[in-house]
Amino acid sequence: VLVLIRSPLPRLRALLQRCWGQLERGFWPGVFGGQSPPWGPALAVQSPALVPQGINDAEAPSLLESVVWMAAPKQRRTIEVNRCRRRNPSKLIEIKRNIDVCPECGNLKQKHVLCGYCYAKVKEETRLIRMEIYKKEGGPLKAPTVETVVLYEGEKPTEKDEGKQIIERARKRPSWFVQ
Amino acid sequence: MRLSVAAAISHGRVYRRFGLSPRSRLDLLRNLVTALVRHERIEAPGARADEMRGYAERLIDYAKRGDKDERAMRMADFWLTEKDLIHKLFKVLAPRFQPHPGSYTRLLQIPNRDGLDRAKMAVIELKGNPLPPLVRPRRDSDKTLLNQLLKGYRQDAQRAA
């Protein structure tokens, strides 16, 4: 190993020569004994990114700063307290006191609402009447320009139904359909 | 004197909000009015039926002016999307409601819708329609106290006369 020591200071040069001589002979306990020194011509790379030391140090303080404090219960709520909250009258379902019996059919109905059974009856009859009207119209967008009257089996138009369009329904007049 | 109009406060606002925009709300109500004039009895969600009632009655008020009236014809043209109903409005509904001063529709609540939403539904109908009646007017029974007293009074008056 040829080492060229080109130091301008003579003292430094002498020191370096002595250290190198000691290394060569193996008197330096820090290096492997008897083996060739590890130093040789090697590539010296200036790369702070290869040994990132600073990032680990920088992370620890930012963890403590970025934490968000949130509310959490301190104690378990006992079952007694829970029961008081869950069964408070404001949370219970209100009982309805406006339910009555329909005088026509006897089903239950709310006082301000039409009876469901009676309304279903009327709706079905209305649907059948509308089917007859549609058959008479013969097509879409042909609304008649005269009033309509519905007559059941065995009924004749009176003088009140003079200029009206007559819709025939092939059944007996229901008791609840009074003119 | 309106000092400021806060967007979040709606004190005194009478018109409900429907649909995607004010124009969409008018289109929705217009469809309902057209359906009412065509079928004379329709089922709709309670709020829409209530909102539509005012527009339908004002349309009939316009129709009562007669079809020669320019404003009445323009109103009917806007509000009825199916144009054969304009004839029905002026020739059938206007004469039917001529003797009445107002309130041409009847609004009743029906049981909640059967679907998942259980929406509050109402049925709105034009009075005097040829369809079967929704509610039969019930007279009080003769056995009530007031009716018995009135019956007694009538008998006494007859005996005296």
Automatic annotation (TrEMBL), chain A:
GO terms for biological process: translation. Residues 158-169 have a biased composition (Basic and acidic residues). One of its GO terms (molecular function) is structural constituent of ribosome. It is found in: Mitochondrion. GO terms for cellular component: mitochondrial large ribosomal subunit. Residues 170-179 have a biased composition (Basic residues). Pfam families: Ribosomal_L32p. PANTHER family: 39S RIBOSOMAL PROTEIN L32, MITOCHONDRIAL (PTHR21026), LARGE RIBOSOMAL SUBUNIT PROTEIN BL32M (PTHR21026:SF2). Belongs to the bacterial ribosomal protein bL32 family. Component of the mitochondrial large ribosomal subunit (mt-LSU). The mitochondrial ribosome (mitoribosome) is a large ribonucleoprotein complex responsible for the synthesis of proteins inside mitochondria. This is Large ribosomal subunit protein bL32m. It comes from Rhabdornis inornatus. The gene is Mrpl32.
Automatic annotation (TrEMBL), chain B:
InterPro entries: Ribosomal_bL17, Ribosomal_bL17_sf. Keywords: Mitochondrion, Ribonucleoprotein, Ribosomal protein, Transit peptide. The keyword Iron-sulfur does not apply. GO terms for cellular component: mitochondrial large ribosomal subunit. Its main location: mitochondrion. GO terms for molecular function: structural constituent of ribosome. It is found in: Mitochondrion. SUPFAM superfamilies: Prokaryotic ribosomal protein L17. One of its GO terms (biological process) is translation. This is Large ribosomal subunit protein bL17m.
